[in-house]
């Protein structure tokens, strides 16, 4: 079956590789990927396709004058779309004999949009998955559902880890999907159950310490590992990323109780050798974030939290609320 894959970046790579292994993709046709916006931009699926000598197209599909359709001598059978990010015009969709199908990393109709994995984590969802749907003309992520695969979101899953799990889940399911395309019932999405997953912006990196630690931690989990890297804070005009943070345990809560009247968004230390390598951020409702690693935005590598303490908090008074280590956000 002559198949064309529309995709870009890392997420669809294991899926494309599995199709290659199954000989489901004809290397003479193969991959349609997004145009390069800069020479630094990573496109792992394109790199793999180049190494394997697949035919690669990077057309501007919105330009009706392009000769992409003419370059495909024989009509392809099947189109698979995953992490492509562009609306595919109707005249392109219509050339596929068996149709075009979209792989979307959420349990549709929940989390339609550009950032379904990130938004599911940030909203503290306990489950997510992948949906295999018919492409919807002139609208993203709205087609009939053929197959859904579900997965638990673990409390420690960040964007990178969950993205890898969902990508592998899809790769493990793609043969089943292709073999049964004609047998699946087409289930229309219930519009009343639709939720949105708008793309991540710089505003999503801002931390509001009037939120609880749990909400901020979920925000961190959803952002960390994306192109935006992580949550960004400022202390004494130095901007830094939160590289490795967690929620505190019961023993830490006991030690931190003495600072419960402190202002949200302030930094504190625990006078206990077990916790000497961390600093703590006060959040709403007397909740706390433990910082284990951070990175200044103008440096390339992460640093252990104790180096921040040694640089900025050497005069910290352990038995006093008279400390003035306040973050900007």
Automatic annotation (TrEMBL):
Domain of life: Eukaryota
Domain Formyl transferase N-terminal intervals: 44-169
Single GO molecular function: methionyl-tRNA formyltransferase activity
Family: Belongs to the Fmt family.
One Pfam family of this chain: Formyl_trans_N
InterPro entries linked to this entry: Formyl_trans_C, Formyl_transf_N, Met-tRNA-FMT_N
Entry's Gene Ontology cellular component terms: mitochondrion
Keyword field contains Cell wall biogenesis/degradation: no
UniProt KW keywords: Protein biosynthesis, Transferase
The protein's name in its UniProt record: Methionyl-tRNA formyltransferase
Domain Formyl transferase C-terminal: 199-304
The keyword Chloroplast is annotated on this UniProt entry: no
């Amino acid at each position: 079956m002559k198949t064309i894959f529309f995709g870009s970046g890392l997420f669809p790579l294991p899926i494309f590789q599995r199709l290659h292994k199954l000989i489901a993709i004809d290397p003479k046709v193969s991959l349609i990927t997004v145009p390069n916006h800069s020479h630094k931009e990573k496109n792992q699926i394109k790199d793999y396709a180049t190494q394997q000598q697949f035919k690669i197209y990077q057309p501007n599909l919105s330009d009706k004058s392009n000769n992409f359709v003419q370059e495909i001598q024989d009509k392809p059978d099947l189109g698979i779309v995953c992490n492509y990010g562009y609306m595919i015009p109707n005249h392109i969709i219509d050339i596929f004999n068996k149709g075009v199908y979209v792989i979307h990393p959420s349990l549709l109709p929940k989390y339609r949009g550009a950032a379904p994995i990130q938004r599911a984590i940030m909203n503290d969802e306990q489950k997510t998955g992948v949906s295999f749907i018919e492409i919807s003309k002139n609208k993203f992520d709205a087609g009939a559902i053929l197959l859904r695969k579900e997965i638990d979101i673990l409390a420690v899953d960040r964007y990178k880890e969950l993205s890898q799990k969902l990508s592998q889940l899809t790769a493990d399911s793609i043969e089943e999907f292709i073999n049964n395309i004609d047998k699946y019932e087409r289930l229309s999405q219930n519009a009343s159950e639709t939720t949105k997953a708008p793309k991540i912006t710089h505003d999503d990196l801002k931390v509001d310490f009037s939120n609880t630690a749990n909400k901020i931690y979920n925000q961190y989990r959803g952002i960390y590992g994306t192109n935006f890297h992580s949550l960004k804070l400022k202390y004494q005009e130095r901007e830094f990323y939160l590289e490795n943070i967690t929620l505190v345990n019961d023993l830490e809560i006991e030690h931190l109780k003495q600072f419960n009247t402190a202002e949200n968004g302030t930094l504190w230390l625990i006078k206990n050798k077990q916790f000497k390598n961390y600093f703590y951020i006060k959040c709403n409702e007397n909740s706390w974030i433990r910082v284990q690693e951070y990175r200044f935005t103008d440096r390339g590598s992460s640093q252990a939290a104790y180096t921040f303490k040694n640089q900025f908090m050497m005069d910290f008074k352990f038995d006093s609320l008279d400390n003035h280590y306040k973050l900007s956000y």
